[in-house]
Structures
1.
Amino acid sequence: MKRLGLVCLIAFLAGCASGPPPPDWQMNAKSALERATAAYLAGNSRVAGLDFERARAELARTGRADLLARALLTECAARVASLEFDDQCPGLAPLAADAGPAERAYAAYLTGRSDEQQDLTLLPEAQRQAQPAAIADPLARLVSMGVRLRRGEAVDAALAVDTASAQGWRRPLLAWLHQQLRQAQAAGDAAGAERARRRIALVLGPQ
C-alpha cells in the first residue's frame, strides 16, 4: 500500500488511463471528493457536506475501511488547514480497527498527538518536510502549518495567508488572517493588525 497522502485517495480513484474503464463507484467517489474539498475550502459548507456524504456513500459500497478512512481524513485535513480543530476526526473511530497503520498515524498527526519519531515514515511525504515553505502542494502546506499551530509551535501566518490567497480559498484565508491579526496584536504591531483587519473586511465583503 502506498503511503497515505492528501491526494493519494483521489489519485487511486482516478485509476489508470491506459487500463480498462474504472467502475462507477470509483469515478463517482473521486468526483464527489474533489468537489467537496473545493467547496469546503471556498467556504460553501452546504455543498461540501453533501459531496463528502456522496463520496463516503460510494466508498462504503466497497466494504473497504481503508478507503473510507482516507476519505474522512481528507475531510479532516481540510478542516485543520482552515484551523478548525476537532478532538478527533468524526466517524473515524469505528474504522480504526480495520484501517491501516498509515491511516492511524495520519489521524494522530492531524490531531497533533503523533510521536514524529515513531510515525514519521508513515506520514505523507509533504508532512515529513521540516519546513512548511518547502512543501509544494498548497493544501498540504496549510495542513502542516495548522498541525504546528495546534501543537503550540511558532508558525508564519503570512505564509499561510499568501498560500490560501493564491488559491482563492476563502475559508482558510479568513482563518489565517485572524491568526495573523492575533500575532500582530501580541507583538504590539498596530499597523500590521490594521492591515489584517482591512483584508478580513475585504474578504468578508459588505455586511
2.
Amino acid sequence: MKYSGWPDPGELVVGKVDDIADFGVFVDLEEYEDKRGLCHISEVASGWIKNVRDHVREGQTVVAKVLEVNESSQQIDLSIKDVNEHQRKEKIQEWKNEQKADKWMALAFGEDIADDRYQSIANALLAEFESLYDGFEQAAIHGIEALEGVELDDDELEAIVETARQNVSVPYVNVTGYVDLRSPAGDGVDDVKEALKAAEGDGEIGDEIELSVTYVGAPEYRVKVKAPDYKTAETELESSVARAREVIEAAGGTAEYHRERSGDEE
C-alpha cells in the first residue's frame, strides 16, 4: 500500500535513488504514490562532498528525513545525512514489515482486491493499530478478540485472523483452553489427578514450550500454553487436552474441551 497524500516535515521516509546530479540526488518515495524528493548535495553527507556518487548510487534504497514540503510546486526537500544508523535500521524494518502486511492483505482478500476495498479495510485496521503489520501481529497472537474494535464485517475479520495465524511469526504467543474432567468412579479424584498429570506432559514438553494446567472450579481446568508461534501453541494445547481425555476416558470418565470459561472469571 502506498499513501496518496504528502509526507510531513520531520518524517522519515524510505526511497530509492532515481537520478544523481552534481547538485544533489533525486529520490522516489517508496511509501507515497507518485512522489519524488530532492536531497541537495549539502544534505547527502556531512562535510565537503567532491562527488555525490562517492556516497550514493542509482537504485540504492535510502532513508531520508523530510525537511520541507511545497505541494504547490510539487517539491519535497530531503536530508540523508540527518538520519543516524539506528533510525535508518528502524525505519527500514518498519517499511519491510509493512511490505509483509501488504502481502498478507492480498492473501486474506485476494490479489485482485479493488483499491477502494483495500483502502477501506486498511483504514479500519489503522484506526485501531499503529500499522497494518501491528494489526496482523495482534490478530495472530490474540485472535478475533484483538480485532474487537475494528469496524469490519465478520468474514473480513475472520480472513485477517486466519491469514495472520498462518503467516505471522511472533516471538511468543499465549493460548488458553479449558477442559472439564469428570469421573463417576469411587476413586474418581485419583482418575482426574492422573488425567491432569498427563495433560501436563509428564516432563516431555519441549524446552521452548511453557504449559500449565490450573484448577478453575470443579470440574473445570485451565490449560495455558506459551510457545514461539501460534501453530505450535495450538498443537500443544490440543495435545495436552487429548492426553487428559485419553486417561480419563480409559477410567470411564469424560473430558469436555472448550476455549472459553464455562463460568465467571475469578
